[in-house]
Amino acid sequence: MRIRRRMLALACAVVVTLAAAACARRGEPQRQAMAGIVITPPIPKPDFTLTDTHGHPYNFRAETRGKVTLLFFGYTHCPDVCPLQMANVAAALKKAGPDVAKQVTVVFVTTDSVRDSPERLRQWLGSFDTTFVGLTGSLDRVNDIQARTRFLPRSVREEEGANYTVAHSAVMLAFARDDSAHVLYPSGVQPAAWAEDLKRMAAAAPPRANE
Amino acid sequence: MRPQSLRITGLVATLGAFGACSAPARRGTLEVHGAYAFAPITTEEAAVYFTVVNHGNTPDTLVGATCGCARSAALHQESKRGMTGMGGMVMERNVPIAPGDSLDLMPGGTHLMLDSLDHLPKAGERISVTLRFAHTGTVVLEVPVRPYAQ
Questions:
Q1: Rounded-to-integer distance, Cα A68 and Cα A92, Å
Q2: Domain tally for chain A?
Q3: Contact criterion met (CB < 8 Å) for A87 and B148
């Protein structure tokens, strides 16, 4: 129940943010809107270590410090939302061009480490973009990370048997070079529009050395 | 409508649903249109989407589906827990469609899941899916396969 309430509050926050963004846009017609949903306040980049698809520990905050970073929680048996997100972001990076793409790190954390072995994750991610980072860890650890974003709901395994599904958030968090997520991307954002956002995020000033 | 059912997933995922769809199939008072499948990453499973409209005066029920290309097919219906696009699924055996009503399958929502495919369907290919309804009988769809990203 607490989760539902939190999610309800979150939805209200998103709606309010959208409304606020709409008002702001009216006042500043020269400013181009982002394709993603602007979130206020921004979400600080969570500090966590999981295992990458090479079997090495991967500290998310250290590895992606100062880089445009897209973070998604999903699983490879996911019917549509996960592959749609990964395919669309891969297409967006292609459209944005190699100069932008090399500045963007895409990290996929599996919510189904039981079935998503590092090998399977590597192969699945590689079908979209071989540079995408895949991370695995127990569902408890992954849910702890999602909770620490104070934004993403817990992932829940549903149904029994081999073909179970895992309820999870559909949104991809986009961390700017200041290591905060100011924008999120729900499923279905078109690659061309997403590419424009990525160009802007890659071009934004990096944080100062002592920040 | 429960407030929890406000979803980002289904809402926005629909934006991505464009491109090749099958021609509408009509049988009796049922119309099935907008069918497509995403080219799957592996042969383990593939998701199929379509809309069934009941133009008749009596209810009908989708009781099953088969595809010659898959070992089994099952309708996975979205559970009403979503908020941040929280996509939970429950398997449904019988899905009623009231007169004048429609059953809409879409990414992030309800889909027909094909399990254990005999090959990897490629974008541009068509797969034949048979839907079985309690009253109308069977409706065969030639489902175009499209890439996840257009």
A1: 14
A2: 2
A3: yes
Contacts of B133 (CB under 8 A, 6+ apart): B30, B60, B61, B62, B63, B139
B102 lies in which domain range? 3-146
Domain that residue A20 falls in: 1-33
Q: What is the CATH number of the domain that holds A52?
A: 3.40.30.10
Q: How many domains does chain B have?
A: 1
Establish if A208 belongs to a structural domain. Answer: no
| Interface TM-score (ipTM) > 0.90 | no
Q: Which residues of A touch B85 (CB under 8 A)?
A: 81, 169-171, 186-187
pTM, rounded to two decimals: 0.80
Question: What are B72-97's pLDDT values in tens digits?
Answer: 999 988 665 443 445 555 667 789 99
User: Which among B15, B88, B148 has CB closest to A83?
Assistant: B148
How far CA A198 is from CA of A67, A193, A208, B100, in Å, comes to 11, 9, 20, 44
